[in-house]
What does this fold into?
Amino acid sequence: MSSSNVKKYKGLLEKKRDELLAAAPVRTPAAEPGSKSGDWIDQSSQESDLHVRLALKQTDSKLLRAIEEAIHRIEQGTYGICMECDNHIAPARLEAVPWTRVCIDCKVKQRG
Ligand SMILES: [Zn+2]
It folds into this structure.
């Protein structure tokens, strides 16, 4: 893969990563001792809403992990190669899903 293409995909990945991070709830890096944990109890009444948000967060964190792995593969020089069959992943697929690990053939096989 040419370095200009790699740069393009890295840009796509970093943009998506930034979007996810921007959408993520603001969190403090570490729990502070003696913080007001009691505040959480008041929010338990909104349980169904909380479930939705947790589900969303889980999906986002999986995606975020996939994106970070893809950026890592760019740095390793293995980006764009299917992890299942070692074939090159089609550019159209990389543009649609830049964080993908496998080519379309292997993806179809995974689905059975
Ligand atoms: Zn494959």
User: Anything to note?
Assistant: The pocket of zinc ion is lined by residues 82, 84-85, 87, 102-103, 105-106 (CB under 6 Å). DSSP finds five helices and no strands in the chain.
